[in-house]
């Protein structure tokens, strides 16, 4: 089994390492020649996953052609803003292949100018049938996967066969993989929870307490579900690992870059200052802009996303954003109640 892992940030390195314990032909593609050389020599990715040793079965290269040619499975795991360009390069190689590979998308985000999900971007650039495109998402911090701590995830595709194939590829006693036919919901859960994690970081930074964080996560999930269903996802998916599961992990974890960025926002840093001082990707910053625009187009109410958008992009004070959320117009917790008037008594 030849597997190509494209992107050697924290998540790509952890996934390549995990697959390298199971298969002997895993190739990790690294963008920078210097990092490729360091990784090949020391077996450590000191910048993105320090302290973790890549198994010897993982080959490291910065030659994309070498990584991808002949691969049965290609895992794309770079920040969302770079996926189209890389997918186009991969597409031109895959075009020449006699057998179509599976393409696994492990990035969590949107393309900003088109507001598309990663599997849509990949489909446009890589000439494989939609069946062969699978999203992998869940509560999966790279640091814990690299440490072989028990982790569960979801693979989603329109094809049951593809889901089950990729489930088998990744499954191990440390990494439990579930399948889900709702690729829209699985991708949206992973991308939208980053916005709420920014909010939980703000709550942590302002010292707002556990009640506030629980409220943010719960009402955050309500608005994620509202937008997701308007975009064609199943509401049930958001109650699963790639929805609620990833939301809890990211909003509460010391590993989360999005939550940490929220703490910085609460301390008075601007979006640009946060981006300058963070070497790792903070997907939630772009996802907030994408979700805000999609919500406006689809007329979906997303009050938390709106406040985080204003704090990031209009430099609204995080304290004012909290006050505005707390003093919004009164509403029902469950929308059907408002629509159907299901109270048993007036
Ligand atoms: N770190 C984690 O625990 C997890 C991350 N993810 C997702 O995986 C994706 C990648 O995240 P990480 O590995 O954490 O990122 P990272 O911040 O650790 O590293 C980013 C990597 O992408 C490379 N890169 C940046 N711009 C690039 C470009 N234009 N072309 C090619 N490569 C480029 C960098 O050189 C670096 O190797 C993100 O969408 C993230 O949300 C998903 C699950 C877990
Ligand atoms: O998606 C993740 C865990 O599932 C990683 O979250 P952060 O990007 O916030 O670190």
UniProtKB/TrEMBL annotation:
Residues noted as binding NAD(+) in the record, renumbered to the chain: 7-12, 142, 257
GO biological process, one term: carbohydrate metabolic process
Chief localization: cytoplasm
This protein's GO CC annotations: cytosol
Gene3D superfamilies: N-(1-d-carboxylethyl)-l-norvaline Dehydrogenase, domain 2, NAD(P)-binding Rossmann-like Domain
Matching InterPro entries: 6-PGluconate_DH-like_C_sf, 6PGD_dom2, G3P_DH_NAD-dep, G3P_DH_NAD-dep_C, G3P_DH_NAD-dep_N, NAD(P)-bd_dom_sf
Domain named Glycerol-3-phosphate dehydrogenase NAD-dependent C-terminal: residues: 182-322
Sorted UniProt keywords: Cytoplasm, Lipid biosynthesis, Lipid metabolism, NAD, NADP, Nucleotide-binding, Oxidoreductase, Phospholipid biosynthesis, Phospholipid metabolism
Active site as annotated: 193 (proton acceptor)
Pathway(s) this gene product operates in, as recorded in its UniProt entry: Membrane lipid metabolism; glycerophospholipid metabolism
EC number: 1.1.1.94
Pfam families according to UniProt: NAD_Gly3P_dh_C, NAD_Gly3P_dh_N
Residues that coordinate or bind substrate: 108, 257-258
Localization of this protein: Cytoplasm
Domain of life: Bacteria
Sequence ranges assigned to domain Glycerol-3-phosphate dehydrogenase NAD-dependent N-terminal in this UniProt record: 3-160
GO molecular function annotation: glycerol-3-phosphate dehydrogenase (NAD+) activity; glycerol-3-phosphate dehydrogenase (NADP+) activity; NAD binding
Binding-site residues for sn-glycerol 3-phosphate, renumbered to this chain: 108, 138, 193, 246, 256-258
Catalytic activity: sn-glycerol 3-phosphate + NADP(+) = dihydroxyacetone phosphate + NADPH + H(+); sn-glycerol 3-phosphate + NAD(+) = dihydroxyacetone phosphate + NADH + H(+)
Chain positions recorded as NADPH binding sites: 10-11, 31, 48, 108, 142, 257, 281, 283
NCBIfam families: PRK00094.1-2, PRK00094.1-3, PRK00094.1-4
Biological role stated in the UniProt entry: Catalyzes the reduction of the glycolytic intermediate dihydroxyacetone phosphate (DHAP) to sn-glycerol 3-phosphate (G3P), the key precursor for phospholipid synthesis.
Family indicated by similarity: Belongs to the NAD-dependent glycerol-3-phosphate dehydrogenase family.
Alphabetical list of HAMAP family matching this protein: NAD_Glyc3P_dehydrog
Designated name of the protein: Glycerol-3-phosphate dehydrogenase [NAD(P)+]
Species, as recorded: Methylomusa anaerophila
């Amino acid at each position: 089994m030849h597997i190509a892992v494209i992107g050697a940030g924290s998540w790509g390195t952890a996934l390549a390492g995990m697959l390298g314990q199971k298969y002997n032909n895993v190739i990790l593609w690294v963008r920078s020649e210097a990092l490729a050389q360091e990784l090949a020599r020391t077996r450590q990715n000191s910048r993105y996953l320090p302290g973790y040793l890549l198994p010897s079965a993982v080959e490291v290269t910065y030659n994309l052609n070498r990584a991808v040619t002949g691969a049965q499975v290609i895992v794309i795991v770079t920040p969302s803003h770079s996926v189209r360009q890389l997918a186009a390069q991969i597409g031109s190689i895959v075009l020449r292949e006699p057998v179509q590979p599976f393409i696994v998308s492990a990035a969590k985000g949107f393309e900003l100018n088109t507001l598309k999900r990663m599997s849509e971007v990949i489909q446009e650039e890589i000439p494989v049938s939609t069946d062969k495109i699978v999203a992998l998402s869940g509560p999966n911090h790279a640091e814990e996967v690299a440490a072989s701590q028990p982790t569960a995830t979801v693979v989603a595709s329109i094809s049951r066969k593809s889901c089950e194939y990729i489930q088998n590829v990744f499954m191990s006693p440390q990494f439990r993989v579930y399948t889900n036919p709702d690729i829209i919901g699985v991708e949206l859960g992973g991308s939208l929870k980053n916005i709420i994690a920014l909010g939980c970081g703000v709550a942590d930074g302002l010292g707002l307490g556990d009640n506030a964080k629980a409220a943010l996560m719960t009402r955050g999930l309500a608005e994620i579900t509202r937008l997701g269903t308007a975009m064609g996802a199943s509401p049930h998916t958001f109650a699963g690992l790639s929805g609620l599961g990833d939301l809890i992990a990211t909003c509460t974890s010391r590993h989360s870059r999005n939550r940490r960025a929220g703490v910085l926002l609460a301390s008075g840093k601007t979006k640009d200052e946060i981006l300058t001082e963070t070497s790792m990707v903070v997907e939630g910053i772009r996802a907030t802009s994408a979700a805000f625009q999609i919500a406006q187009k689809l007329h979906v109410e997303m009050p938390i996303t709106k406040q985080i958008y204003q704090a990031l992009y209009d430099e609204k004070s995080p304290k004012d954003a909290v006050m505005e959320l707390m003093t919004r117009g009164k509403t029902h917790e469950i929308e059907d109640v408002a629509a159907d008037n299901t109270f048993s008594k007036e």
